[in-house]
Amino acid sequence: MSQTLDTGQSSTTDSPISPTLRYPGTTRILHWLIAVLVLATWPLGYVIKFVKGEVSLDFYLIHESLGFLILWVMLLRIGNKLIARKPPHDGPAIERIAAEAVHGLLYVFLIVMPVSGFLATNAHGFPLKWFGLIEVWSPIGKSPDIAWTLSAIHEWSAFILLGLFVMHIGAVLFHHVLRRDATLYRIL
Ligand code: HEM
Ligand code: HEM
Fold it and tell me: What is the CA radius of gyration of the chain?
């Protein structure tokens, strides 16, 4: 993952690194859009169980609607990943493999989370009205037999996603603060 800061080739951008070492614009925009959505959706999901009364319905609706939006943005992101240029990594093989593994698992759990949440909600008998506007077709309908299994997948996946995020931020801090290389600028 490590890059040496390259300050000489940035005349056309504000970035301190060469454009070839940065992720393309679409990848950067999708990265930060998903980051903002996840950083709002995850805590909202967690606090729902502590919210009492009618207002909890608003928490459910906002959490579920933002979560469902993440699913569609992630599908775009996967499409983008398949076609977008990937800037080269020149760090040791072990670091490249670790980064690829964490990034790959983040992709997997960012699909598992919204799909399990959506199906669990359907299975418990609550169809999603996206942002209160669009009734989303339920592929399974009310299915009490599998509802709690789907809820458990959603809950466990939430903690795996949190673990992956902590590793991700740990790696970013390691590169930026300790090693002082240009990894962070690749995505800015
Ligand atoms: C990437 C997207 C999502 C993330 C990161 C996320 C995250 C979370 C988290 C952290 C929790 C709390 C788990 C716990 O209690 O320990 C949760 C609960 C929940 N989520 Fe999601 N979620 C996402 C998408 C969705 C979607 C799309 C739906 C439904 C359409 C949904 C429905 C629910 C429901 C019903 C709960 C249970 C709330 C309760 O009664 O405690 N989630 N979610
Ligand atoms: C909030 C602060 C965040 C920072 C500072 C940050 C920083 C970075 C950096 C520097 C990279 C490039 C790593 C490299 O080139 O090896 C990157 C890539 C990546 N980040 Fe983040 N990130 C953040 C949040 C998130 C969140 C919330 C997620 C998902 C839950 C995420 C998922 C990813 C993924 C999957 C990649 C790989 C790029 C791709 O293939 O799309 N990041 N991030």
Answer: 19
Q: For ligand 2, say whether the CB of 38 is within 6 Å of any of its atoms.
A: yes
Distances in whole angstroms, Cα of residue 158 to Cα of each of 24, 42, 104: 29, 8, 16
- Please state the domain extents for the chain: 40-83+106-181
Our answer on whether the CB atom of 87 is closer than 6 Å to any ligand 1 atom is no
DSSP 3-state helix, strand, coil percentages of the chain (rounded to 5)? 70, 0, 30
Q: List, in order, residues 6 or more apart from 90 with CB less than 8 Å away.
A: 2, 3
Beta-carbon contacts of 92 under 8 Å, excluding residues fewer than 6 positions away, are: none
Distance (angstroms) between ligand 2 centre and the Cα of 112 equals: 18
Distance 161 CA to ligand 2 centre (A): 13
Contact 53, 47 (CB under 8 A): no
pTM of the model: 0.94
83-136 pLDDT per residue, tens: 999 999 888 999 999 999 999 999 999 999 999 999 999 999 999 999 999 999
Buried b (16+ CB within 10 A) or exposed e, 132-141: eeeeeebeee
